[in-house]
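Progress narrative, Year 2. Work on MerR family transcriptional regulator from Senegalia massiliensis advanced from sequence curation to structure prediction during this period.
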Amino acid sequence: MKGYSITEVAAKLDGLHVQTIRKWEKDFELIIPRNDLGHRQYTEKEIEVLRNIKNMKDEGAGIEIIKKILSKSENAAEQKENALELVSIDRLNGKELNEIMINKLSQYMEERDDKLINEFANTMKTQLSEIIDEKETLLKKDYQKKLNIMQKNIEETISNEIEETLSNELEKQEKKIREQLSSENSKLMKYIENRDKEKEKKPFFKRLFK
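Result:
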């Protein structure tokens, strides 16, 4: 990654004064990478952030407004993160060292949280799948049990209806036969009665030699 000295950066920013760049670094808490000799070594990211500050200054923005804008800027955040990675540990001051430790700790916590979340999600997914399978099994058993009861009730109902129908039919046939027998018996009795009356009307000798 190509590095620029503070003088080169000033030239790139339309001849901006070196002291102004140093003041902005302090005002806006910019972290600038340094080489092994302790000299500032600017990358394109630092130059881009400084150019944005210059543009806002030219528009009349104050320090507090620029700070707020930089705090929400992805470029500024990325620049600071990259700068911290490029600075040697022994070149960091207390504030810079504290910031890099916080960033590393935050990154570790995010990775740890992601891992825990993934593990929890996988565990919940497995447990949920087991619960669903168990529920489906119970539902199938319950459904089969209800189906068997329903089928049994239907069979009993049909059997009872058939039995009742047959019983009714047998009763009807029996009644009809009884009525027919009674009718035939009445006819027979009537016939015998008439025959006896006819016999009584004939003379004695005719009845005797019939």
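The CA atoms of residues 160 and 209 lie 66 Å apart. The first helix runs from residue 6 to 12.
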